[in-house]
């Protein structure tokens, strides 16, 4: 009898633990503090340095002008070894060459046409006239300024639809990295290549998973300070105006960043995840380095170097907010400054350039951000079809 009573006690205790665990995780998202973050404004933005046709505001001692136009759908921008620029125009299926002379665009030509949602571009760091192009379904390379054609090095998943941009870049280790978004708003992916970043050699060999649980990390880059990969990631839809937060992650090999069952600061998405847990299913996931206003759609990001830039901007990130499409009050449509110290610690967020959103209507939507030594930055705009040139204008003594 004692044995039977003991067995009954163990079963009852087990059921109680399961019930407590279920209720805890079922209600966790409701008792956690809401993460709705208002836009971070700045009272220091002025129109003085604006040379564009739009009513933009930016910090004193900076200027912005139109660098290139007639580029509808402009997304990713790179510069080759000869000093010319290449820009992907995803919805047009082309990659356009911008020929340079004396710092100005003198000619532009759609060199590669008929492509399938071309997005990511990368120039071989060891050969400045070899360009890599990521289409929705493949990664290829081509020898520029020749009769060469595209050479496929990797197949990419397309089943299920969803996010179709594929972004590529070479890391400090010489590997070529590719980001592949999810096939859905929120779901359990059947293909492990979705919602992940993969790495490969530049010939496509050794194609393997680098990081997972990234719903749609459209852009990523590496810190000049510590060499770590940082990437923007967009949260799921249909949880309201202020959830879940958009993210900036420090992306490390082998780590899982939570999607689809976790968002923000490791909060279990009970709206989607109906499973029962004894332990926190998000405890082993990586929380974001920076959380940002939901539905801002963060895309391009770039670190500000020391040479040619004001000291207070050193080590900071400039991030392009492409802007919301499903928020009751539109948000985003601007460039923001993520303030970091020299060790990468987050200090705060403030607006850098605003004005593309006017009376609820978008005049432009910034996408890619490229920042160089010497105080120069380039930003693409796929709605206005422009590339902007932003410069730090040193104040007169």
Describe what this molecule looks like in 3D.
The chain starts with a helix and ends in a 5-residue tail after the last strand. The protein is 8% helix and 38% strand. It contains one helix and 30 strands. Strands 3-30-29-28 form a four-stranded antiparallel sheet, with no helix packed on it. It has a four-stranded antiparallel sheet with strand order 4-5-6-7, with no helix packed on it. It has one domain (32-392): Neuraminidase. The longest helix is centred in the N-terminal third of the chain and has 30 residues, at 2-31. Mean pLDDT is 90; it is low at 1-39. The protein is mainly beta and 397 residues long. The protein is globular and about 65 Å long.
């Amino acid at each position: 009898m004692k044995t039977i009573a003991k067995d009954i006690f163990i079963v009852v205790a087990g059921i109680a633990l399961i019930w407590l665990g279920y209720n805890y995780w079922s209600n966790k998202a409701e008792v956690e503090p809401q993460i709705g973050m208002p836009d971070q404004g700045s009272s220091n933005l002025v129109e003085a340095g604006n040379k564009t046709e739009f009513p933009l505001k930016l910090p004193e001692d900076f200027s912005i002008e139109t660098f290139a136009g007639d580029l509808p759908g402009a997304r990713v921008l790179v510069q080759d070894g000869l000093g010319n620029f290449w820009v992907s125009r995803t919805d047009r299926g082309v990659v356009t060459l911008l020929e340079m002379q004396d710092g100005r665009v003198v000619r532009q030509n759609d060199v590669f046409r008929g492509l399938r949602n071309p997005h990511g571009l990368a120039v071989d760091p060891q050969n400045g006239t070899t360009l890599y192009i990521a289409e929705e379904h493949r990664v290829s390379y081509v020898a520029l300024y020749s009769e060469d054609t595209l050479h496929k090095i990797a197949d990419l998943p397309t089943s299920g639809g969803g996010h179709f941009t594929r972004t590529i870049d070479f890391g400090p280790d010489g590997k070529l990295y590719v980001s592949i978004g999810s096939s859905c708003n929120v779901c359990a992916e059947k293909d492990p290549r979705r919602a992940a970043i993969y790495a490969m050699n530049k010939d496509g060999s050794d194609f393997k998973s680098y990081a997972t649980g990234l719903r749609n990390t459209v852009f990523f880059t590496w810190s000049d300070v510590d060499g770590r990969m940082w990437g923007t990631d967009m949260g799921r839809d249909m949880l309201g105006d202020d959830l879940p937060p958009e993210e900036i992650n420090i992306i490390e090999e082998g780590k899982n960043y939570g999607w689809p069952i976790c968002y923000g600061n490791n909060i279990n998405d009970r709206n989607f995840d109906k499973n029962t847990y004894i332990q926190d299913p998000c405890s082993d996931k990586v929380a974001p380095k920076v959380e940002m206003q939901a539905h801002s759609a963060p895309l391009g990001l770039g670190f500000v170097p020391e040479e040619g830039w004001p000291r207070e901007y050193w080590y900071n990130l400039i991030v392009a907010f492409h802007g919301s499409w499903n928020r009751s009050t539109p948000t985003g449509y601007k460039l923001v400054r993520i303030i970091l110290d020299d060790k990468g610690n987050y200090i705060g967020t403030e607006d850098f350039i605003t004005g593309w959103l006017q009376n609820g209507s978008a005049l432009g939507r910034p996408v890619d951000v490229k920042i160089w030594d010497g105080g120069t930055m380039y930003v693409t705009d796929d709605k206005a079809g422009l590339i902007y040139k932003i410069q730090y204008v040193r104040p007169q003594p």
